[in-house]
Structures are given as C-alpha cells and as structure tokens.
Write a structure and sequence with these properties.
globular; alpha/beta; TIM Barrel; Sulfite Reductase Hemoprotein, domain 1; 2 domains; 12 helices; 5-stranded mixed sheet
Length: 388
C-alpha cells in the first residue's frame, strides 16, 4: 500500500506518539465515562487502548476530576498494547486554571479558545494562553487548540455574525500566532463542527494559511451509526485526499462498552482512503432529516441520554424527507448553545431533558415522557415549514 500523501507539517510529540512530520495519521477517541468513576474510566481507557487508539482523551472540569485522573493514569500505566501504555490527553473544559494540576498526569492538554473568557475575566486571553503554554513546557507535554463552531469566542462571533466558519478560522489562527510568539510550537489545531461542510471549509482555509501546523480532524457530534460514520467519511475522504489531516477522531453516540468502535471505524476509513476505496455520496445527502448527537463523555449527567438519542432517531424516521434538524446533547456545557441552531433541541440533565424549539425552551420533561413531547414538536415544526 502506498502511504497517504499529506502536506508537510511540523512534528509534535505527544507521549510516545508523533503527530505530523510525516508520521502515520494517529487515531484518537475519548472516554465517555464520568472521570470520577475511576473503575469505569479505567475500564474505558483499557477498552479504547485495546482497540488500537493512539491517544485517549479524558475530560476534567474540577479538582475532584483531576484527583480521579491521577488514579486512572496510575492504574493504566502498565496496560500495554504492543509494548506501549495508553497516551492520555485531557480536555480542560471551561477551567483553564486546572492545567497546572492536570499536567503531571497527561501527555497533552486540549483547551478551547472559546472557553477562556469564563474565568478571571479581567485577565487577557494572551496571559491565559501564556500560562497554559508555560505549564506545558514545564511538564514536557503538548497542546491542542480545539476550536468549535458551537462555542467560538464571543468577540469572534460578534465580529463575524453568521459566518461562524470565519470566526472559527480566525480564532485558530490567532491562537496559533499567540503560541508562536510565546516560542511554543508543540501544538496541534482542530476546527470542528457537526456540519461536515463547515469542517471541510474551516480546515481548508486554516491549512492554506498555516500549512505547518498539524491538524486534528473530526466531525463533532456526528451522531449515531451509520449516519455519523457517513458524515465523518465525507469530510475525511476529501480532506485527507487533499493532504490535510495528521490525526483523527470519529465522534459517535455509542453505548459505553462500544466506544472502541470509534477507533475501528477510524482505522477502516484511513485504510479505505489509502487504498482508493472512496464512497459515492448522493447529491441530496443531508438535505432531509438531520439528527445531531454528541458522542458522550464524562460530562454526560445521565447515561439515559444514549438510549434517548436512539429512541429519537427511531421516532423521527417518518420525517426523513423533511428538512428538519434535531440535536440531542448530553451535558450542560454543549447542550444550551449547540441546540440553538437546531429546529428541535434536547439537552439532557441528570433528571430530565430540556426540550427546545430553536432558541426557545419549550419545557423540561422527565426522560420517560420527553419522547412524546418531542414527537408533538416535530409535527409542529413540519407543519410550520410547510406553511400550514
């Protein structure tokens, strides 16, 4: 097999894994369990590592999460696959100040530029980035600048208005330049959205201006198989065929015990691309019913979210020819904002589900009754779009 031709990017070391610099495309996944459930998270890390993951990400949103992460690291350090222990990355969520206590336990930190404004609002973004970069140098770890269309820096959103891809690209370029100016170049960038079209546009625009920076590809909240795999495949086939992409994540809504499937699917996609097995895509793909759902992570407050997503998909099957978007989100971080652009949004809390019609909150319903409410709302949306 001939290697996949890629644009030459600089090499970034993440533990024993190299990203960019001509290294094979790395495949990543994320633990879906609550980080403080140490037993479940250890099992999840081992399961994903056994599936062949190069990097495994874990979310940390509190000091208690960090304490649990330290135990997870200690208990998985000797779980070897091909002689290598799991390479761990951490997602700082909204609290960048956790970087200092997280860093000793991981190989990479991911921060979202759109979340840096949440804490210490009097401090400049550059000072916050400098703090994170300094921690990374002290602990010999890498960084990922993870930009997401659904949570772009408010100033960028205000500047670009409806051009959320433009806001995403400018944010990624700005943070790359900040890190360069700080003398820190051990970083990768990701530009993600649940719409594969925006993933294509954003990564192409960024790569054209910063071809040296390794890119992490992913269609975030792609949803459930097979739709989520198809959306991801479309984006990966086009970008990787153009030489763009040094590491990938397939984000699927799956039961916790099946999270290794993200790695299996990712490797299959890369193998297909390498061997020229591209899939044709109907011209009208994505024009009808579009169901967006997050891949689940430690932020999910009720595992019933996964069952609900599957039930919504089955319930809404009758509307497959209607141009309706339904977003099902599993936590308070992504739920409120990333359901705003959907016709129908369900963001799930510990005891119930917030049902939305666009930005309007219709109500808060128990898990065992929200499906009927969503069905009623779906009929209403279809009627509205038909002008009835």
């Amino acid at each position: 097999m001939a290697p996949i031709r890629r644009k030459p990017t600089r090499a970034v070391r993440v533990g024993h894994v190299q990203i960019g610099g001509g290294a094979p495309i790395a495949v990543q996944s994320m633990a879906a369990t609550k980080t403080q459930d140490i037993e479940a998270t250890v099992r999840q890390v081992q399961l994903i590592h056994d599936a062949g993951a190069d990097v495994i990400r874990i979310a940390c949103d509190s000091r208690q999460d960090v304490e649990a992460l330290a135990e997870v690291r200690a208990r998985t350090r000797d779980h070897l696959v091909n002689g290598k222990a799991p390479t761990l990355s951490v997602d700082l969520q909204e609290n960048y100040r956790l970087a200092e206590i997280v860093a000793p336990h991981v190989d990479k930190i991911r921060y979202n530029p759109g979340h840096l404004h949440h804490h210490e609002k009097s401090k400049s973004i550059r000072d916050k980035v400098a703090y994170i970069a300094d921690i990374a140098v002290k602990h010999d770890i890498a960084l990922r600048v993870g930009v997401n269309c659904g949570s772009v820096d408010p100033e960028k959103s205000a500047k670009f208005g409806d051009d959320d891809v433009g806001a995403m690209v400018e944010s990624a370029l700005e943070h790359s330049q900040m890190l360069d100016d700080l003398g820190f170049n051990r970083f990768v960038v990701s530009l993600k959205d649940s719409d594969w079209r925006k993933v294509l546009e954003g990564n192409r625009r960024f790569s054209a201006q910063r071809p040296d920076v390794p890119l992490h590809l992913g269609v975030t909240e792609a949803g459930m198989p097979p739709d989520g795999i198809i959306k991801t495949r479309i984006a990966f086939e086009q970008l990787i065929a153009e030489g763009i992409g040094d590491t990938i994540r397939v984000s699927l809504t799956l039961p916790f015990e099946d999270k290794g499937q993200e790695i299996t699917v990712g490797r299959e996609l890369l193998d297909d691309i390498q061997n020229g097995r591209f899939r044709s895509v109907p011209a009208n793909f994505g024009e009808g019913l579009n169901i967006i759902s997050c891949p689940s992570c430690s932020r999910v407050e009720n595992e019933q979210f996964i069952v609900l997503a599957q039930d919504v998909k089955q319930m809404a099957a009758y509307a497959q020819d209607h141009k309706v978007t339904i977003a099902i989100m599993g936590c308070r971080v992504n739920g409120p904002g990333e359901t705003d652009d959907a016709d129908i949004g369900l963001w799930c809390g510990p005891l119930g589900v917030n049902l939305k019609h666009g930005e309007e909150v219709v109500g808060h319903f128990p898990y065992d009754s929200v499906l009927n409410e969503a069905h009623v709302l779906l009929d209403r949306v279809i009627a509205e779009k038909a002008g009835v």
